[in-house]
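User: My instructor asked us to take a sequence, write out its structure as tokens, and then describe one feature of it. I'm not sure where to start. Here is the sequence I was given:
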Amino acid sequence: MARDYKLRREVVEELAALMGDLEDLVDLVLVEGRRDRERLEAWGCRAPIATLGPLGVGEAEQAEMLASKCSRLLILTDFDEKGRALNSRFSRLLEGRVCVDHGLRARFGRLMGELRVRAVEDLGGGFERGG
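Assistant: Let's start with the prediction itself. The structure tokens for your sequence are:
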């Protein structure tokens, strides 16, 4: 039990450090919705965060707007079927126009998986050193 707590604490600390470093790693983080943005901010993310556009705005138009705002992008959609599909579609739409950081997404996926969380909004209330 103490080993599990220690491992969880290490993962939480690594995730919090990664959140704090995002503003130096990417120009923009793309998430699915408002609650995802709020969760990242609660974890200390200082990088600009964009949410997927309103209904009626097509993905191609959203991708065009994203490409005009940044050169380095993290697509941090959820790690469920819908989120992975959104990641794939936006990655394709932005290919050759924006550097989409797939390695950074994989790091988030690994850390969230270790915490048994698939949705960004389910990361908890923010970084808590006590666990």
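For the description part of your assignment, you could build on this observation: The first strand starts at residue 28 and ends at 31. Try explaining in your own words what that tells you about the chain.
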